[in-house]
Amino acid sequence: MRIGVFICHCGSNIAGTVDCAGVAAQAARFPDVAYSTDIMYACAEPGQDAIIEAIREHGLTGVVVASCTPRMHEPTFRRAVERAGLNRYMFEMANIREHVSWIGKDMDANTNKAAELVRMAVAKLRLNRELTPKSFPVTKRVLVIGGGVAGIQAALDAADAGLEVVLVEKEPSIGGKMAKLDKTFPTVDCSSCILGPRMVDVAQHPKITLYAAAEVESVSGYVGNFSVRIRKKATCVDWDKCTGCGLCTEKCPSRKSYDRFNEGVGPTTAIIIPFPQAIPKKASIEREFCRQFTRGKCGVCAKVCPTGAIDYDMQDSFVEVEVGGIVAATGYDLMDWTVYEEYGGGRYPDVITSLQYERLLSASGPTGGHVRRPSDGAEPRDVVFIQCVGSRDPSVGRPYCSGFCCMYTAKQAILTKDHIPDSQSYVFYMDIRSPGKGYDEFTRRVQEEYQAQYIRGRVSRIYPSRGKLVVCGADTLMGTQVEVAADLVVLAVGGEAAHGAPQLAEKLRISYDQYGFFMEGHPKLKPVETNTAGVFLAGSCQGLKDIPSSVAQGSAAAAKVIGLLSRDMLESDPQIAQVTVSRCIGCGKCIEVCPFKAIQEIDLRGQPRAEVIETVCQGCGVCNATCPQGAIQLSHFTDNQILAEVEALCRF
Amino acid sequence: MAIEQELQAAVKAALPELDCIIGWGPGPDALRDAPLFLRDAADADVLRAGFFSVNNPALFLPEYKGRKIGVLVKGCDARSVGQLLLEGLVRREDLFVIGFPCSGVIDAGKAAALIADRCEAGELRSVREQGDSIVLEGPDGAFSLAKKDVRADKCERCLFPNAMDADLFVGEKRAPFAELDEYADLAAFEQAPLEERMAFWEKEMSRCIRCYACRDACPLCVCRDQCVAVARDPHWLSQADGIRDKLFFQIIHASHLAGRCTGCGECERACPMGIPVLLLKRALSRRVETLFAYRAGIDMQGRPPLLTFSLEEPRIKERDW
Amino acid sequence: MAVMQGKELRIVGFLCNWCSYGGADTAGVGRFAQPTDLRIVRVPCSGRINPLFILKALTSGADGVLVSGCHPRDCHYAEGNYYARRRLEVMRGLLPVLGIDPGRFEYTWVSASEGQRWQHVVEEFTKQIHALGPIGRFPDAPELASLGLGAG
User: pTM of the prediction?
Assistant: First the structure.
């Protein structure tokens, strides 16, 4: 074998703490190395060209690049060696940036370590084999999980491109958080007026199948061919018969139900259509409040329903769908702000969340758009907004900035003035974060045109006094203490990953961070991909974002799925397990441990043997570590290759 | 003796339904029986089963898979059969298991050492069991030895002298005479300083001649001709005559038996150099027992512990970094 | 190019590609300084790790071996780390009887986002191995021993 070694400087990223020329000189003496050099930027076009030229000039049959992590540029360099006529798997990387130059400053130690990593890569490469991918057909259907604005956008874009779309929403209606908003920043246009038509499009699109009040139960399969089991929750209303007339909701005697859509601002009935523009516009029964279930008798809705749609005995049911790609768009929930004792911990009715305030402002809300405070229904005059409640606060385990609160608080202050002209808004803030088109102008307008008083400082305490709430805080710009007697306090509560997000991540086999947000494939270059092929992210499930960003990411995720499923055949990764039949004794242990059921027993002249189903194998290698005689080997990570790496280190 | 005759009768009765019955017959010398493969009831009279029936007949079962086989088993042999069954390497419906109460087996090495001043094992004319003793007929007359002085170490530790899951059990089941901690010797070994333990293996393995008799005697080493010890791909071992590779083969053997080894001790018995290779396997058996409450060949519910997992592992204490 | 005498010990890491290798990358991106002893072997999944790799390393001169995979429930391949946990735990039982300090081997779970945790693990483990010092070596066959010295 003739191996070429290229030690990348990465500008000064590597060369700053690694003697790259020295490493190249050492590498020249490693077994089978025919050519070794250092190079300024291996990944840039001149760098790739130099590699290709060296392959041709020196007749190289394998290449090692020592540079950044293979998770970054392995595909890049594989394509480069392929352009030079080599099989793309005759290539190895040594990670001398993330694992060497960026984590230590000792030049000697780094140089030695880099050279050793190169020796390991060379040792492995000497045992690499040419691998060729196989192709398999794809299912041209996409699953979108979550019917908020990001999921709606992804579903519509994918459907418009001709893909069949299955949209799953856990609530009885799509619309997500955006449907709860009164207006949107910075244009102060009506939220439901812009979202509503999109929701209708979803309902009417011939390519979209909507499952509302449904959740993903399990996912199996792999990119191109996932099998998804969807749990349709029992709504106790046959939606095929329900016309959405709403008669049941008018007659329902159980009027103390928690109103999830209205964030608990005022009660609702036990049988509900969440809001007038709901899609689908179907009723569903909340069993925990329904008298038929709590008291065992009532049956009013069943009596009044003109189509006989009520079915108290309904059970959850399941549907199975086959899809080629999946978009997760599960959004966010508000963090539990009642951990803040200084804000009353939830004891004061007139301390409400920003989302509850949206419902008070909304013309379709429980107060018909008249701002009335919860305690006595009075119209508030002095309204205090407190920002960063559960954002940028390590003391409650929420060190991150939720990103959208500065802007919606400004919007709510403007709307307050619009609704109650003689009102006065006070905003306690830490910093005003308003990057975005027209955003900073907006936060200025609220102060200059709408006379909202912005106070830079945290609130230390809220206590009730003579029908008011006294808000005590600091003004850190003035260096004084501030007390505001407020009629209503609105907390800009930060977001967190939607409840149940980690459980879904496990079903999808994607990573999530400590807050439950899904991990993108790369923080910069793969913002909508995940590390699981065929699964993409849209909206706040990946990290909190505002409406335009969510919509953009919804479209981006759709574009990725469209790109994926535009092909009739996908190539399978050839880094999979392979059985040497002559060495297999048919003990079946590999079959037993395979997480993907990718190994089957075959009959070879009357003897059982193992066989890998190539398109099902995901290349984890559990079988390889199980087979005592090593008759099943994971290509590209064979026992001999890993042993060679160990030897290359420990022998010296 | 009575049990042996009863067993001979049982074998005769069972043989018409079976391709073969595996038991013991006369061996190379009076101290050792050898495996016997009975196909004809007329030969049943040479069948032996007792103190000198050391070999584990389970060794032969996997290659008979698919045929109806009868097998005579001591308690330890039965555990091997059990483990083979659990792993699907033999099928229960193909087996006719005949058990009998085992009062331990001879360690021929111990006996040879004790009689060394009288004669060699090969010079013994006959040997028979008599209660707690064995009576040996040497060139200069008869003499006896106490069984406990010549019994294999594994029998002193044995908690399961009676074959479990036998289709036919001949004789009275007996209680185990082991009451001591099964792993006391291991714990004692681990009291020595690390360097001494390492030096122990260095010294022991220096005698290894890489004959693989340990492997070939192991009833659970089912890879047989495909053993990694002699494979080039994967190439776990060099063929060089070094202690490191010799020891590493024992590590491989132990690792492949983790959660499977029943402690029958055939590896150690077969070793021509007398290297205590069972110790490594027992270290892993102890570990598996501690972590998963699993004893190979005994606990027949569920799956072998290393071929399965549970989401929560109550007995595994992970390090908290 | 042997181990840097007096400065470093030989530590081999086996890391799964999806979580821990990514976590080590994240630590690098965050410039979380770490001791330089560790060399990482990248494998697709902790379930790919045959415990014999660890014993091979420890009997071939590695002073310490560190394995890291995805957190339980978070395996890219759903189950690989569960198998790994059992196998590695069992294998650890062989170390004392061989005369190898069990502290020379550790395994842990580090996700791709946990750069700081990775830094902490590397620091702690390196400290632990330095406290134990160089490992005792089983003698190699003379011809192999000379091979190692010659090619270095």
Answer: 0.78
